[in-house]
Design brief:
Elements (H helix, E strand, L loop, with lengths): L9 H12 L3 E8 L4 H7 L8 E9 L4 H4 L2 E8 L2 E9 L9 H4 L4 E8 L2 E12 L1 H8 L5 H4 L2 H10 L10 E13 L8 E7 L5 E9 L4 H14 L11 H20 L1
Parallel strand pairs: 1-5
Antiparallel strand pairs: 1-9, 2-3, 2-7, 3-4, 4-6, 5-6, 7-8, 8-9
């Protein structure tokens, strides 16, 4: 991932342009510092009762070998809807992906951008029956039985040597509240996600999506709108997945030490 400077360098802009040419979508993200969370929620007039409840779990080795290899495996439950499973690889170069892989159902390439940073990822997503997702997060169903055949093949192609799906441990689950809304002064839907970590810490992330061709215009409009609402875009950015993985891996390690 690029550095977390607020302004991209000339080389970084050129890199982003190259990635966007091969991407299917772009997602712009910004995390809100704790000190500004309440004021930002008030500025956007967010109603927490409109939020959708989600439960998310990641699967990795205790020492996060997959994360170190750029691979993420996630299973998610969604309130009132089927769940889903995702195998994600990042960073990727879109033009190096095989056309047969790009054509798979549920496969997408996206550039995620936040103030001063960006990464291009490839994800293979599949719908999971609500009960199956519940059983997976409760530890009643083995992970390989939750993933589709294509997801298992995609994982096997990119996973570190010797790290099988059956040997992964669950990191989580974590509660997430997702709220979709449309600011009156912005012609695009926004999404707010509040991730609630077991130790009481939280991450509030705001995001919006668009087509690669409109990425820079969308970024300029979103930046202006977010700044007007009091979002501090110069603050250090927190990533939901990385924070969750490190939290639960640390918790797992501490539990192991206690058991000795």
């Amino acid at each position: 991932m690029a550095s977390q400077n607020v302004v991209l360098s000339t080389d970084q802009v050129a890199e982003v342009l190259g990635l966007l040419r091969g991407a299917d979508s772009v997602e712009l993200k910004a995390s809100v510092p704790d000190s500004g969370r309440r004021s930002v929620v008030a500025a956007f007039e967010m109603d927490p009762l409109d939020a959708q409840i989600r439960q998310v779990a990641f699967f990795d080795t205790p020492d996060l070998a997959l994360n170190g290899h750029g691979l993420v495996v996630r299973v998610r439950r969604v309130q009132g809807k089927p769940g889903d499973a995702v195998v994600k690889l990042r960073p990727v170069e879109p033009d190096q992906l095989q056309s047969s892989v790009r054509a798979m159902k549920g496969f997408g390439v996206e550039v995620d951008a936040m103030p001063g940073g960006f990464v291009c990822s490839a994800s293979l997503k599949a719908t999971v029956d609500a009960d199956a997702a519940k059983d997976a997060l409760a530890g009643r169903t083995p992970l390989p039985d939750v993933l589709s055949r294509q997801q298992r093949d995609f994982y096997a192609e990119h996973a570190p040597s010797g790290v099988d799906l059956s040997g992964l441990v669950m990191l989580g689950p974590i509660m997430v509240f997702k709220l979709k809304f449309r600011p009156p002064d912005f012609d695009r839907r926004m999404v707010a996600e509040l991730w609630l970590y077991p130790d009481g810490s939280r991450i509030l992330e705001l995001s919006t999506k668009g087509k690669p061709a409109e990425a820079f215009d969308l970024a300029a409009a979103a930046r202006t709108m977010l700044a007007a609402k009091g979002v501090d875009l110069s603050a250090a950015q927190q990533t939901k997945t990385k924070t969750a993985l490190e939290f639960f891996a640390r918790e797992l390690a501490e539990a192991g030490e206690t058991a000795r």
